[in-house]
Amino acid sequence: MYLSKISIKGYRLFDEEISIKFNKGINVLVSENGCGKSTIIDAIRMLLNEDDYSRNGVNQEDFYYSIDNSIQSEEINIKGKFSDLSDKKKIEYLTWLDDNYDAILNLSIIKKLDNRNHYKKKIWGGESSNSIFEWEALNDIQCAYLPALRDAKKKLRAGRGSRLARLLLNLSQDEIEEKRKTGKLMEIEEDVNNFNKKLSGKGDIKKADEMINKILQNALGSVFGQKTKIQFNDLTYERIVESLRLVFFSGTQINEETVYRNLSENSLGYNNLIYLATILAEFEGLKNNYTSPRILLIEELEAHLHPQLQMKLLKYLNGQAEKNDIQIIITTHSTTIASSTPIKNLICLNSIENKKITAVSLYDCRLDEKSEKFIDRWMDVTKSTLLFSKGVILVEGLAESILLPKLAEIYLRQYNLSHGEKTVDSLEEAGISVINMNGVFFQYFMQLYRGYQLILPKRKVRETKKDYEERLSKFKKKPKFEEDEYIKVNFIPIRCVAITDNDPDKDKNPTKLNPIDGNNPQLFYIEQLEKMTSNCRVYKNLKTFEYDMAISSKYNSKMMIEILLDNINIDGEVKKTLENYKNKIEECQENDKEVDNLDDIASFILKQIDSLDIGKGMFAQILFDKISKNEEFDVPEYIKKSIDFVLEL
């Protein structure tokens, strides 16, 4: 039994109803700021009557209201669905069951105060709000919460309500009840009693005790007098464990001479881990008391932890979730945690037009097995930034990822001037991520955004494997699919664009007026996406990124030639040819003429970038510095189109 879905309406950010689907085990909520991750966590806490939330209650600010206050919610509705119930659980949660044998829990809070100044709240199981609600079923759901701004040291310090005391009391609950029934003491109570007896007869303690009692006797007399005794705290088991505190040692190898230290001397990150360990210990110790569901809510798991610890902790939590049947729901802004989480366990929140929030479980994107495995392998810290973006541009290599943001700045400046309006000044300002694919792999990532998945034809009887694979390949490359050839699936509702090389034969020099068919195996995607989705596009160049930059203008070519000349140390034919091209371009600039063979120059530049030791990555960095200094460059048309699309210009 696990929480499979929660629906929220009228609560904080959510005016219209939003539903979030969860998996068994680990669930990681990712998004930019202000998309409601904490609101979702708090809605679960409120629905499940989690300790801290049940004490704090609901405030007026928890009801949705628009920025101008023209729209205000009069009611908060939260609905949870629990799936995968065992036969035993179906009986236990009988009054909660719907027609599919899922358990439904509802909470409604009306913005009207009762006599105690609390908002009117109603909770019920199942579809009918008039049914009798049995609290025992709700109390059987174990829910623990670690807040984002958690003070681990405070939670762990000795005192009533400390996390350590709670752990010890829960673990000893059955034994305490048995002892109380028989009038016997807990073993630790007997030990403390005996210790106090010995303590009272010790030197200065005995002397101080006698002095205090003597003064009280003389001052108050025998009628009004009282007796005192110096001893350790209350002798009940509950008060004893509340006096205990955790200490730490920085290391794992201990001996009799090991000196433990106070948690105030420990780092914030390690104290957070100790705090989490006490909760997991409580879950482990009480697994026989709470069979399921057991839900652990953690906001910003990465708090105060360096990347290696984040990954190690996430891996451990995933193991605990599987081993002890714990559902763990995490919020994060960490690309490390996002990239270390299997794609099917990620839930992506986005703020789209009119500030509407969407929640997409990436499991519902229905990735094919090959794509899912590919993304899980390739999703590193840099690529996982796409999960926190308002738009994505996928590029093939390092050169594009270096130069594209600068080219976008130049184009947007020109766009704003020509249109007489201010859009944005950069991709960064617009929240657009440029992701380096290190190759032509965008088709795998596009499946998160395109909104459709193919229904692949099955292999025919007596059809050879080779023939089937050829037929399958041809099917996948269709420009458009019929209704029975695909299904609509959930998708991340932001724009995604890929820019790719046309890759014609190396000896070919295409131009805008004379384009040439390329050899890039993914070019079929251009037409297919245009006909199948409004969310994704692929744009190609004439030949390659460097070639298209050079052929875009004589100014670009001259700048790129200057970089090559600065990095050639040997006089020879290459240097002589580059100098001749540079002189020719300068002459055309002076006379305001077009260069008649700019395609040959662009091809020669590309060849030298590929053959010289400088390499495409270093060349791109040097070109970036030159463009930044001059703030002038002619942006290739296919780059402009990709920016237009992702920014909806």
UniProtKB/TrEMBL annotation:
Domain (OLD protein-like TOPRIM) ranges: 387-451
Gene3D superfamilies: P-loop containing nucleotide triphosphate hydrolases
Organism, as annotated: Clostridium algifaecis
Matching InterPro entries: AAA_GajA/Old/RecF-like, Bact_Antivir_Def_Nuclease, P-loop_NTPase, TOPRIM_OLD
Record protein name field: ATP-dependent endonuclease of OLD family
Keywords (A to Z) from UniProt: Coiled coil, Endonuclease, Hydrolase, Nuclease
GO molecular function, one term: endonuclease activity
Endonuclease GajA/Old nuclease/RecF-like AAA domain: residues covered: 1-116, 144-338
Coiled coil: 571-598
Pfam families: AAA_15, OLD-like_TOPRIM
SUPFAM superfamilies xref list: P-loop containing nucleoside triphosphate hydrolases (SSF52540)
